[in-house]
Structures are given as C-alpha cells and as structure tokens.
Amino acid sequence: MSITASMVKELREKTGAGMMDCKTALNETNGDMEAAIDWLRSKGIAKAEKKSGRVAAEGLVGIAADGNKAIAVEVNSETDFVAKNEQFQDLVRSISKAALATDGSVAEINSAEIGGKPVSQALTDAIATIGENMSLRRATKMEVSKGVVATYLHNSAGEGLGKIAVLVGLESDGDAAALAAIGKQVAMHVAATNPLAASKDEVPAEVAEREKAIFIEQARESGKPDAIIEKMVEGRMRKFYEESVLVSQAFVIDPDKTVEQALKDAEKDAGAPITLKGFVRMALGEGIEKEEGDFAAEVASMAKG
User: Fold this and answer.
1) Burial bucket for residue 145 (CB in 10 Å: 0-12, 13-18, 19+)
2) What is the pLDDT of residue 60?
3) Which of 14, 55, 10 is nearest to 288 (CA)?
4) Beta strands in the chain (DSSP E)
5) How far out from the chain centre does Cα 73 lie?
6) Which residues of the chain have pLDDT under 70?
7) Is 171:271 a contact under the CB 8 Å cutoff?
8) How far apart are the C-alpha atoms of 156 and 154, rounded to whole Å?
C-alpha cells in the first residue's frame, strides 16, 4: 500500500511521534492507522493516541435533572455563532427539559412536545428562522432507584447548557444535600479526567487485551527473563487501571485519595452507604470530524474575489 503524506501527518497528529517514525510505522503495518499507533506505542515512541483536534462540531449540550434522574442531550449547529444565539440556547434548554420525561431515545424526544409542537418541528422552525441547519444528535438518560443523579456542565453557556455534560448516579438512602455535594465533585472529576469506565469490571475486554499486548511487547524489548516481564506487565496494567478507571483514579479535588475513598468518606456526611451506579460524560462533537479549512488560503481567495 502506498503511504501518503496526509497519512503520515494524521498519525503524527494522533501520536506526537516524529515524521520518519510515523512513516516507518505505517510501512510496517501496511497503512493501518490503528495498528500503526499500536506499533509506535510498543516501541515506546508514542505513549498513547492523542486527540487530533479535528474531531469537533458546533452547538451545545444541555442537561435537565430532577432528583434521582437526569438527562444530557446534544444539539448540533453549523457554527459557534448560532450556539451563542439566545433563540438556539432557549431551544436546547426546552429540548432538555422535555427529554427528561421521555425514555431518553432520540426518536421519543423528537416526538415530545415543546411550545405545543413536536421537538422535530421546533427544530425545523428554528432552522427556517435562524437560517442554519441544526439537529438533535443524541441523548443519554440516567436514573437511580434512590439517591441522586448529580450533574456538572463544563464551559457553561448559560443555565443548563455547556460544552461538556456529566451525569453521576449515586444510589443511597443518605442525605440528599450531602449526596448532591459529593456527586457534583465526582462529576467535575469526570469532566476533567474522562475515565474509560466506572470500575475495572466495566473496562471492555478487548481494550484491556490490547493494552496488555502493547505492554508485553514493550517489556520483551528489555531482554529480561519471562518471569520479570510478567511482573513488569502486571505493574503496567495496574497503572493503566489506576489512570483510566473512575473509582481507582486520584480524586482531582484531593489527589491524596482515590475517587472510591472520597465516596467512602462522604458516607459520614450522608449518613448512609453510597453506591456509584455509573456516569455519563457527553462532550460536544466527539466522534464527529469537522473539516478544517486553510485560513490563509481562504483570506487569499477572498482578497482575489
């Protein structure tokens, strides 16, 4: 397979590795981007895949909550200018509130009513008024049988709106105010660290196996005996879980304790045991690749026009 300059550039953006290393990795893996990332990591050239910066979309994420239940929704627009539009913000806020009474599916939310019309129609009307395409992309609802679903919005754009929405479900018979307080702190932690899973058991098997394979390859290059390699891999896997699993992470509010320990300590104020039921982290535009234009070329083109 022919390795193009754009492929090398993409791999470099994702890993931070040098140009020649990226080219070698792509040649070694026959142009397979994911395999090339793993190859670089196994050689110790790249620590982990970096976000390229190209994954983006405009719009807002919204949150609506009511005690033991909450929902996060993402509504996309074409430009950030519209995301700052008061009419668009009011629309996202209304959609979030209507969504809380649904099962959380996009189909049911689109059928829910706001202002006497379905959400889908309200979006169509807003497109006609504002003059820009917009859509309800996704939603995630969380509910606990007792306790609270705490929320946090990062890069707030007004009440109930932002760029990153986090929901944290805490099941407990404890004091609601105490649960909400620790819940918000954990939600802020999730926004900052973006954990892979709530607990070790929830880490997808294929992800853990992929990490282990990379660590084995790295350890083998040390030339040490198999027994030592096994211990090295165990240590690296332990660190992987500490860094990527929510309950095992160092708590950003107090790094001397883990999130699990922080929740345990909060039981004293709550007056009852606390069980972390899960979390949702919804970042605006994740998974959408937005084409970036060449600004200099755009200005030159406008000047010629």
Assistant:
1) exposed
2) 96
3) 55
4) 58-66, 69-77, 113-114, 117-118, 134-143, 147-154, 161-162, 164-171, 250-251, 254-258, 275-283
5) 13
6) 46-56, 289-305
7) no
8) 5
pTM of the predicted model, to two decimals? Answer: 0.74
Give the Cα separation of 126 and 9 in Å (integer): 39
pLDDT in tens, 2-31: 889 889 888 888 887 888 888 899 999 999
> What is the number of residues in the chain?
305
What gap in Å lies between CA 149 and CA 66, rounded to an integer?
8
State residue 46's pLDDT score: 67
Give the per-residue pLDDT at 187.
96
Q: Where are the alpha helices (DSSP H) in 139-175?
A: none
Q: How far is CA 37 from CA 13, 54, 80, 239, in A?
A: 11, 17, 32, 20
Contacts of 9 (CB under 8 A, 6+ apart): none
Provide CB contacts within 8 A for 191, sequence distance 6+: 152, 154, 164, 166, 281
Fold (topology level) of 58-197+253-283: Tetrahydropterin Synthase; Chain A (3.30.479)
The confidence score (pLDDT) of residue 150 equals 97
Q: If we measure between CA atoms, which residue out of 130, 37, 114, 26 comes closest to residue 77?
A: 130
Taking the domain 1-52, which CATH number applies?
1.10.8.10
Distance CA 236, CA 242 (A): 10
Residue ranges covered by each domain of the chain:
1-52, 58-197+253-283
Residue type, 236: R
